[in-house]
Sequence to fold (849 residues):
Amino acid sequence: MQFRLRGDTIATMALAAAALFIIVLLVGLSYELYLGSSTSIAKFGIGFLVGSKWNPNKNALGALPFIYGTLVTSAIAIMIGLPISLGVAIFISERLKAHRSIGYLLGTIVDLLAAVPSVVYGLFGILVFAPLLSKYIETPLHQFLGFVPLFSGSPFQGGANFFSAGVILAIMIIPTMSAVTRDVLHAVPNSQREAMYSLGATDWEVTQKSVLPYSRSGIFGAFVLGLGRAVGETMAVVMVIGNIPSITSNLFSSGYSLSALIANEFGEASGLYRAAIVEVALILFFVALIINVFARLLLWRMTRGTQVRA
Amino acid sequence: METRDLKAIYGKLQALKGINLKFPENKVTAIMGPSGCGKSTLIRCLNRIHELTPGAKVQGEVILDGINIYDSKVDPVAIRRRIGMVFQKPNPFPTMTIYDNVVAGLKLNGVRNRNKLNELAEKSLRMAFLWDEVKNDLKKPGTALSGGQQQRLCIARSLAVEPEVILMDEPCSALDPIATAKVEESIVELKKEFTIIIVTHNLQQAARISDYTAFMYLGKLEEFGETVDIFENPKSELTEKYITGKFG
Amino acid sequence: MTSADGFSSVSWWRRLVNKSMTILILVAVVLAIVPLVFILAEVLIQGGSVISLGFLTHMPAGPTDKTGGIGPAIAGSFTMVGIASLISIPIGVGAGIFFSEWSSSKLSTVSGFMNDVLTGFPTMVIGLFVYIIIVLTTHEWSAFAGGVALSFIMIPIIARTTSESLSLVPNTLREASMALGVPRWRTIFRVVIGTGKTGLLTGIILSIARATGETAPLLLTAAASTHYITNIFNQPTASLTVLIYNYGTSGFPVWEAQAWGAALILILLMLGLNLFVKLVIGKNLTEARME
Fold:
């Protein structure tokens, strides 16, 4: 009796310690970020978040360009990546029902994309893809649609700009989003599809009106996953975005992102400048936190009214 | 509606081995038989749902109003509107309200007029004997109803598009006796306007509500006739054994 | 056979929409696959031309010297992922077990929530954090710091996959075991983990693969190096990923080619691990995908 209880107690305590570690980790992380950026917060205040000039020499620092860059590249990534992921998921889960093995193969291929490390995406991006994008897509866009503010700048040969970074990010988040969406669609009971078919619906109508609504919350989960990944991504962005702080509607301009700044500048920074970069990290921390919490809230609301599985 | 030499394959198994059956108009025909006899497959062939299953094939003809629904010129999407289906487990669309569930088929087919939709929704819900229970709650989600109510909602949903034939695949097997009774009540009323084909493993139910009965065994049609005849004077020995409960 | 009205009267518009959507879906699939084929082809072609035994073992050389190799980088990556695994597997699995077996406790809820926040957290911030707590205090770049940073990325993944795998184990097994008088801790370690071990293993291997491919956390902890290390606590350590980053952005063709070579090795490693999981363990990997 005694012996057993001790075994249980030790095990419970050890396991609880592991769980506690995670709390310590996150709390410690936020604490250190806060501490490390305190001088910067004291000096720049709220202006840090809305200031658009980043001038280390004159100690005038505003992080808006980086927030902007992170948001713009992530937005492009989602706008391109989500529809494609959805399309792939629908194709594999709905259209390939009769050819399950091809679907599995296709799924594996797309999953392989997820196994490519971000730095390799960056390498591919800067040495191969961005120049190609610049030549075959960005330049024509500028030529024909240059009047649209988004395409108003002339892309440089290398193609290191918001747009290229956004596209590379899109490619990076597609495998995760499509894999999650695929599973979600797969989980829709067949009786739902059959009910829609028996009312006289086309394939697309069945997908659109029965399968997709049923999977709403799961698809939203995939979207959040992709967004979180895009926002936090460092390497692919730092290698392809150009690393020049700028706020402009021109997508073909070089830009900067929160994580790219940290990667580039932290190593040699000191004193107040270093604290400012830690503050940038703190901003990124909050962005990631907000996305996560926001997603949970929305997910909870979405599944509250209907009895659809999350 | 009638079938001519209907064969169905499911993977490597030949589930239907040549069925010839005429379903009398405006009557309730029950399809019965032991598990695995092919009754579900048969009914799913009647509205071309069977072919949606991977590995499923259909041969033979199913005639509706003189036209073979499997003819290459016929669009399955169009035909499925004319043949409604109610499934074994109630499957209302969970993301839609009761109202939206009922008019789902109508909206698909392009009916936009609010008044027409309301009119048809009420008519269908009345025919399914559900109107009185939900008329004030049409905005509630379809899944907020009890099992029996959900099934009647599914019936209303299939009625709204004004089909000619209604197929029911063991519609009451997931329901309690009271809910079953309500559904059976509506079936008996519905046959005045529709031809009803119902698969059931419940002998008493067949006896209660059907005018004609088809008995199937191992993919073949063993016997067909008026329900009273089948139950009192079965011609085939197998039929007799089934009815007297010697096997199920 | 005549097409009577009502037998083929699906409106042309609906048919058009149906067909167009099918085409769009196919376009999406192509768009998703083309980059993959492209990347893998590039890595194979460009990287393949540089691979040799010397390449895999030599130490790096100058930007125009073709005899340089990535030996230290390979060793460094292995070392740091090894350190990370030693740290993250016990903690991650432990936390995961706690989440699953004590799921109603407050500690579990709070920690679980924080774990979710940490999963997929921006890795650059993690690197910065470890820089502050280890590099600043020891005044050294080190493989240890790199390993710790990687472990902070691995722990949430392992904890989540462990917790999900164990949650799938039916409660009846636990009850049966306890009813036989087996103490709780034994029940967990023998019965529950025994049943859920494939899921556990999958999560661990996938997180190892993930850590191998990480760059940002290493930039500020292990930095970079041209030598094989002799001590994990006080020397900057090379890694495949940081090497690819540095060489790839250097602008020197020889180094760029070597970056492709390193990328090839890296991808082979990660693909190998992923395929191993899929083929040998072959379970549904939803949990593992929640990186």
